[in-house]
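tool=predict chain=A
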Amino acid sequence: MPTPRKPRARSYDPAKTRAAVRAQYAHVAAAVGELTEEQLARPAGLGAWTVRDLAAHIAWAVGSLSAAAARPPAATAEVTVQSWPFATEPIRDRIEDAHRNKEAEPLAALYARTGERFSELLDVLPGDRLLGLWIGGMTVADFVVTRAVELVVHTDDLNRALGGTVPLDRQALATCVRVLADALAAKAPGGSVEVRVPPFAVVQCVEGPRHTRGTPPNVVETDPLTWIRLATGRLGWAEAVAGARVGASGERADLDAFLPVMS
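tool=predict ok
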């Protein structure tokens, strides 16, 4: 795997991000509260996870803000939004084990408690407060951006598993697309391919001749959900291209070797 470089940091409006995360969590909580036992027992399409496992993991991912805020602040910011997609893989097993401890609590109670505490913390924690996470120190502002990514990715997982229509907050969706697009640009640095995910992101990546003007010779274009699924390994490149879910033009417009950027 290529060593990720640190791209020019994209900025995220803290107020808009916090509002988006609140809205997306509310959408998920409402949907999970209506699931039947039969639905919760279905495969989530994520290894051995059931939908119940997935729902518990979402609550854990959001509730991790509370756990981190309860620890002493980190000394330095070791992880940023830009490096976060590459930081979670080494602790993947630990993350998968963590949500299982939530199964004893009824999901309705878990979601209510988690949501209440999360909202309280969003009101009082300053954006520059340093959190001590398993992956290293990270500011509250950056961590909240990553919660938007988690919520959008897993909302889509729920919808795919259940054939559902849990809404996606537009700001949360835009944030998720941009974080994952920037991760691709960091993983495959260069300027020979332009990746477009309208209306939210355009990045250049892949080593080779850099395009400067006119129509780029190598272009990849897709929709937000297809991009998110490609970037997180939910959808393979060949399948997406064969199904006309991705438009790829130019001899370098093949991203198969660089995907997923986060799993």
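DSSP finds ten helices and six strands in the chain. The CA atoms of residues 9 and 202 lie 14 Å apart.
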